[in-house]
Amino acid sequence: MSAQEGSTCLPLDQNGRSSVPGETLADRIRRALEADISSGRLEPGSKLDEQELAEQYGVSRTPVREAFRLLAASHLVELRGRQGAVVRTISAQILIEMFQVMAELEGLCARLAARRANPAQLSRIGAIHKRLEEVSASGDIDLFYDVNQEFHEAVYEASSNGFLADQTRRLRNQVAAYRRRVTHRPSRIPKTLKEHGEVIAAIRVHDDEAAQRAMRDHVNLLGDDLLDFLAAYG
Question: Which of 11, 14, 18, 50 is deepest in the core (most CB within 10 A)?
Answer without folding.
Answer: 18
